[in-house]
Each structure stands twice: as structure tokens, then as C-alpha cells.
Protein: LuxR family two component transcriptional regulator
Amino acid sequence: MSEATIIVIDDDPEIREALGSLLRSVGFDVKLLASVGDFLISGRPDGPTCLVLDVRLPGQSGLDFQLELSREKIQLPIVFITGHGDIPMSVRAMKGGAVEFLTKPFRDQDLLDAIHVGLARDRAWIENEKALATVRARFDSLTPREREVMALVVAGRLNKQIAGDLGVSEITVKVHRSQVMQKMGTRSLPELARMADKLMIAPGKPQTNS
Structure:
């Protein structure tokens, strides 16, 4: 996995450089940016990332950017920093999923602690996405009939019932069921059900490959 990267977005160059020096001193890779627009141009690094984001920025504010990320379903842990914070602002940030809301001046350790929490959250998300991609690839290898059988199996239907549902023999269902378990890489029905849940497959509703 790539090294962790901390992205600092603050329009005050002195604060950017001070934060950059602090974060580099404890071993982080750091990107220093002056605006949300700069971030959109540079993009997010591949590995674990935490965003240290000033609330008040030229153009799009930090809080508005947080809302945009949420709407676009982009996972990025955020530690807000501000010299002009108030309670409604902090409540909005935390309800939006921020890791922490720090008012300047803050202790270096408070910032570092929040960043470590954010990175742990991002690492967990990355691992979950990798696991989901593996399950999705296995599901994509199933034939349309095997997907039908899988949906009915995780719904708790017995082989005989599935045979009636699909208009095939019970032996045929057993063959398809065996293939499903083999291709999905599991021998456990509860695990197969968890996979179906991750893929958001509604039990009993056959799925097609989109």
C-alpha cells in the first residue's frame, strides 16, 4: 500500500508552510495547496490520505467542499482547521463526517492525533473497497442462471423450491449451486449471504450484469 499523504488546503502561506514542516517532521508525505481548485487540479493520491482543510477559503469554502465530496460519494477524511469557528459551523462539519474541527491556535498533538484517526479510517475504507472489488469480480464470473440461483439461495429457498421457481430439475439446481459456491470462493451459506449484501443483491431477486 502507498505511503500516507496529508493534503493541507489553507490560503495562508505561512500556515501552510508551518503545517507542512510539522507533518514532514513526523514522516508524512505532504501536499500544500492554497484552494479547493488546486486540489481538483492535482487530484487525490492513490494511498491512504487525510485532508487538513481550512474552513474559510477563496472561492469554494471548506464546508461547501465537504458537502460536494459527500454528494459525489467521494471518501476523504477531513480535519477542519479555522481561526473563526463557531458552534453551528463545527456542528455542520462533524455531522458531515469530519474527523475533527480544530480552532486556531491548536496544539500540534491534537492535529496529529486527528490525522492518525483520519488515516485509520481511510485505510479501512481502501481495504473494504479492495474486498468489494474482489467479490464483484467473482460475481461477474457467474452465468445469468447462476446469478438467479444465488439470489434464491441467499433468500433461504431450498433446492426443490428453486427448481420449481426456475422450472428446472433439482439436480440442475444443485449443479448451479455448487458452481456458485465455487466461483464465489466460499463453502458457507452465511458468507455467501454477506457477499450478496455487499453487492446489494436483494434476496430472491435474480441479478444481471450491468
